Amino acid sequence: MLNRIVNICMVVAGSTMLLSACKTPSVVERAANTDVPVSFNGSQDTVNVAKVQWADYFTDPHLNALIDTALKNNQELNVIMQEIEISRNEVRARKGEYLPFVDIKAGAGVDKPGRYTSRGASEATTEIEPGREMPDPLQDYMVGAFATWELDVWGKLHNAKRAAVARYLSSVEGRNFMVTNLIAEIANSYYELLALDNQLEIVKRNIEIQSNALEIVKLQKQAARVTELAVRKFQAEVFHTKSLQYDIQQEIAITENKINFLVGRYPQHIERSPQAFSDLVPKAVQAGIPSQLLENRPDVRQAEMELEAAKLDVKVAKARFYPSLGISAGIGFQAFNPSYLIKTPESLLYSLAGDLTAPLINRNAIKADYKSANAKQIQAIFNYEKTILNAYVEVSNQLAKINNLEQSYDLKAKEVEALTQSIDISNNLFRSARADYMEVLLTQRDALESKFELVETKRAQMNALVNVYQALGGGWN
Predict the structure, then answer these.
(1) Could you tell me whether strands 132-133 and 127-129 are parallel, antiparallel, or unpaired per DSSP bridges?
(2) Lower CB density within 10 Å: C or N end of the chain?
(3) Which residues of the chain are under the pLDDT cut of 50?
């Protein structure tokens, strides 16, 4: 009987589908453009630092300890982990929709129709056994199992499940992208902290140099070789440099708190080795080839999964134009007296039915959903293309930055060396009255600024090293 019902419904479904298929909107097809340049800088070397584990890429034990703690305690990362769990449960829910639903049902009730109604009169004259009339009032007891099942003829439910799987994988890639960004943000903040420590040490040394120069000017004033104006100028320069010390200390506090927040803990001292900052030498970076970004970058993979889900959503929306075939069945026992429930076949109940539902008139809502799904698919294609383009541009920018900063650092180091020597020269000339105090002050200020710029260039070098690792998609695997 079940096969007969299914066959009848399939015939009706085919007829209804032919009626509605001619009115189904067409899909706007557009393939994503995944063509990327063949290389970043003319090299075809496929060695890629993105494959290197973050614990091997960063060699500072204090930095690695911070990253390891952050991957366990960062609140935003933990929130994303719950998003992944939500996506996983959505897959389970979609999978359950194309399986039969079976429920157990039990009930009891009482019914008393009016005696002078057609139903009451008929029941009053009905005998359930010779000499026994129908009970009045009539009780009802029932227990049974009932099932409903929508046959996924057009793949609507399976495609919905596949779309949920794609979004689950997308959420996993989103977590990986978050890991990459988190590692890069902690590393950049750590190197910024080391740079601030070095700048603070430079300021303290400069304060000592300027204080000594101030004492010399005071002695020269007593010898009537300079005026009070020179003394005041040197004092002002010392005060200015001392104020820089507190500005840097404030920046250090802010940066430490930022790192502590990323690590998921309350403010505390960040363990570090600032004296090793000036000895850091950026390593050579193997960027591989651009096509590897499609595999290594989590945001590219996330956009790809979102595109796959959007394509499946179009198929699901299109399937809503076609008939849906459902089967319902039930089996159990029902009687007006509990003692009769086990008396079969009189108390046995069963049912089997098939139903077919198809949209025929006023399908505007379905058409709107279908067109929206199609538009979202095109939107996902553009987003995928934009993500690939952005990934290539980010890598290209960081590689150029590494090369340019290397040249800039060498020149700034020579500048610092020259200005540092000029401080002693200007002091000697000032003592022999062959240079005025303004030349000494300007020389000291230029030397301080050049040292700051050298530290900033070193920090920028280390940040570029971190950012190119992030841009290539390293850290999450």
Answers:
(1) antiparallel
(2) N
(3) 2, 5-6, 8-9, 11-13, 15-22
Beta-bridge partners for 351: 330
What is the maximum span of the chain, computed from C-alpha positions, in angstroms? 143
132-133 vs 348-357, strand pairing mode: unpaired
Structure tokens at 72: 């366990």
Length of the chain: 477
Structure token pair of residue 94: 């979609």
Nearest alpha-carbon partner for 109 in 143, 72, 149 = 143
Q: Which two tokens stand for residue 378?
A: 């095109």
- Give the position of tokens 């063509």: 35
Walk me through the domains of the chain, giving residue ranges and CATH numbers. 2-98+152-323+358-471 (1.20.1600.10)
Burial degree of 38 (CB within 10 A; 0-12, 13-18, 19+): exposed
Query: What distance in Å separates the CA atoms of residue 385 and residue 293, rounded to the nearest whole number?
Result: 12
Residue type, 183: I
Q: Where are the alpha helices (DSSP H) in 45-155?
A: 54-57, 61-73, 75-97, 118-124
pLDDT at 28: 61
Residue by residue, DSSP assigns 155-200 as SHHHHHHHHHHHHHHHHHHHHHHHHHHHHHHHHHHHHHHHHHHHHH
314-370 per-position pLDDT tens digit: 999 999 999 989 999 999 999 888 888 888 888 899 999 989 888 888 788 899 999
Percentage of the chain beyond pLDDT 70 is: 89
* DSSP code of residue 287: B
Name the DSSP class of 329: E
Task: For residue 265, count other CB atoms closer than 10 A to its CB.
Answer: 12
DSSP 206-219: HHHHHHHHHHHHHH
Per DSSP, 282 falls in state: P
